[in-house]
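Subgroup meeting minutes
Present: P.N., E.W., G.H.
Scribe: E.W.

1. P.N. recapped why we're keeping a running log of single-chain structure predictions: easier to compare across weeks, and new members can see raw inputs and outputs side by side.
2. G.H. added today's entry (519 aa).
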Amino acid sequence: MGDKTSPSNVGTVVSVRGSVVDIRFDAHLPPIYSLLHAKEGEIAIEVLAQLDAHRVRGIALTPTQGLARGIVVKDTGGPLMAPVGKGILSRMFDVFGNAIDRQEAPTDVQWRTVHRAPPALARRSTKSEIFETGIKVIDVLVPLERGGKAGLFGGAGVGKTVLLTEMIHNMIGHQKGVSIFCGIGERCREGEELYRDMKEAGVLPNMVMVFGQMNEPPGSRFRVGHAALTMAEYFRDDEHRDVLLLIDNIFRFIQAGMEVSGLMGQMPSRLGYQPTMGTELSRLEERIANTDAGAITSIQAVYVPADDLTDPAAVHTFSHLSASIVLSRKRASEGLYPAIDLLQSSSKMATPGIVGERHYLLAQEIRRTLAQYEDLKDVIAMLGLEQLSPDDRKVVARARRLERFLTQPFFATEQFSGIKGKLVSLKDALDGCERILRDEFKDYPERALYMIGAIDEAKKNAPSDKPAAKAEPGAKPAAKADPKPAADSKPKTGSEPQPKPEPKSKPEVEHAAADTHEP
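Output recorded in log:
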């Protein structure tokens, strides 16, 4: 972390309080955002306030161990800089642009300030395109926007980082542009694992990683997002390439700002957040934009404190996103992964003009079915499934099968689950949902649809499952949802399982069993 310019302005430390340092300059007062160095460049301080004609207050971007009153501080003459250029590809950096992958420092680079203005409105592109992820539930219900911002909201341990890692795996393979991963205030282990996984997958040549993890001081975590964005803007504006920017975790950026604000002596706002949170978040998020030169598509993990979506950090982040994917602890506890709350998640892309009429109507029908099932859960819990009307039983059967079909085995979790990961096209995902809603799979046990890729895999699972189903209380919803079809649509059941001769006798046995219990 050497000096980038030859400093001529020198001051002395007058006080040190944690990460906050007050410095006196007699000759010339450094401007706001100037980078100062102490102890031969070991300690970096960014100026955040000018207290009077001779004193500035800054926040240390490195640990302040060893800093004392009277120590000489040098003004570098400029702000914090980040490296840009083709030389940064396949490398891992810290907030100062130092390589942290145990390799030589990159040579073919230039340095740019991390404090840059968002693109002008006249330069922004207004074209809306869908960005496919290969994850069924996201592509069908919460489509992402190319050049947009998507947020993964969830509390601790519901799968935000796993989902983000899976998206990296699925997208980087067919992503023609550059991918930049920015780790803000998360575990160091995750950064090391990601680097190893990307290297093994062979996608590192088109990827850059920037880390300011949870062991770093708040000043460093607060600026690492800006450093990553400066790199992303270079590839978008200078090389006219599309960029995929992955941020884990945007809440830690807000949290670092809260720590900096408290150290600087500002009066806290609601729940202890900094009064300038909206401005700080906008300064970062508004730089992520689609322009005439290229697009920066961003996917951001957002930690939600105590699973409370009304927390100011979550509320402020929601307003910047084109898609919000909310993860549910309840679904995670039921083993329905990815644990996405299908009713709370939303996307601005889910309109007929963008995704098409068929996709839009199908997504609405899925939501309606799941919402009806959610309303009926209380009745089922109190009175049982038998007390529902035949139509309601059909809705419950469809909803439960949809929930299971929208689960998916991930490549990122193969080593833990032992199930091979699946990538599913949007066409296959839509076809599967449509066929479930048409009751094509009402005679198949629910578990045949669990953790599969395309819908046809359920038929492969069914023959071995179906004979076994006779001995158990028989795929409960399937057995209980069937009495009505048995009563009023017998011709249909005869033609329904036609593709599979053996299931035909099984539904009849089930109907008979169900009918004997119905009185």
